Amino acid sequence: MVLGALALLAIAMLAGLWVRAGRRAQAAEANELEAHRHYGKLHETFKQAVAAEAQRRSDTAKAVLLEAVTHNLRAPLTSIKASVTALIGEPTSPGLPIGARLELLQVLDEETDRLDRFVDALAALARIEGGALALDRRPSSIEDIMQAAVARARPQLGNREVEVAAQSDLRPIRVDAWALEEAIYQLLENATNHSPPRSVVRVSASVLRSATLEICVEDQGPGIADAERERIFERFFRGAAARAPGRPGLGLAIVKGVVDAHGGTVTADNRAHNAGARFTIHLPLAADEAAG
Q: What is the C-alpha to C-alpha distance for residues 289 and 207, in angstroms, rounded to an integer?
């Protein structure tokens, strides 16, 4: 009898433990389901917040883009319209001196060139940002690329002196010659925009021991403000020291896009004693290209 009673007691205790364990399991399962429900709700809320922030930034970027494009089109078009209006009205104003007519024609020429450069820059940046910049890498002379960029930038450089220095034993480098020329040209135009007349702009190229091609463009302008260094390669960003207010602020974004496509880096800093800005392009080289 005693053993039977003990057995019944043990069974009852086990049954109670089983019931309590079952209840705990059910409670744990309910808690897990509740946790999953809360996680799902938080995840959905987070996704909505991220989407809203992305849309806000997209709208802001579109507004900035539209404002910049509008400004860079309106300014030259206004000058062109004024000059054309004056020239059209010349038959009724025969007293317009020949010098004034030539000046108006020069304005037309300069402003159409300005529009042309802006459209070219927009097209280049669109190809880069749209992933349509397919590099045509071929063995190319870096010195020839530099000289071509200088010749192209000569009208903008005006009376500034340009020094071109290339390491004497540079081998042909496999790059997209057109794209790299465009990057150097944009750096030269940027130097023109930030350096005074009759100053010196220097372009140099050399191979570093780390099997890296280094191309530098240096000017004698005011240099780069510390607060502007992080944004200087953003599209439409223009530094406070820019001398020509009509520049669209696309050049350095194009430079970065071209260099990135080549697997390289571009940096901006100041020369010693704040004697101007220095832009440095580093491109990785194959072993046969780096050998001197």
A: 9
CB atoms within 10 A of CB 244: 12
Cα(44)–Cα(52) distance, rounded to whole angstroms?
12
Element (H, E) at 126: helix 98-129
Give the CA radius of gyration of the chain. 33
Rounded Cα distance, 36 and 47, in Å: 16
Domain locations in the chain as residue ranges: 1-132, 138-290
d(CA 250, CA 255): 9
Q: How far from 39 is each of 30, 31, 33, CA to CA, in Å?
A: 14, 12, 10
Task: Please name the residue that has the structure tokens 């509740």.
Answer: 34
Interval 81-94 mean pLDDT = 70
CA distance 84 to 87: 5
139 closest CA partner among 181, 185, 171, 183: 171
Side-chain half-sphere CA neighbours of 66 within 13 A? 6
* pTM listed for this prediction: 0.63
Domain 138-290 sits in CATH at: 3.30.565.10
Residue 217: helix, strand or coil by DSSP? Answer: strand
User: What is 1-132's CATH number?
Assistant: 1.10.287.130
Q: Please answer whether residues 146 and 167 qualify as being in contact, where contact means their C-beta atoms are separated by less than 8 angstroms.
A: no
Residue 29 — left, alpha, or beta (φ > 0 → left; ψ -120 to 50 → alpha)?
alpha
The confidence band for 72, taking pLDDT boundaries of 50, 70 and 90, is low
* Confidence grade of residue 134 (pLDDT, cut at 50, 70, 90): confident
**pLDDT for residue 210 is more than 60:** yes
Edge to edge, the sheet with strand 200-208 lists 161-166, 200-208, 212-218, 277-284, 265-270
Quick one: angle between helices 2-88 and 98-129, nearest 10?
160
156 or 172, higher pLDDT: 172
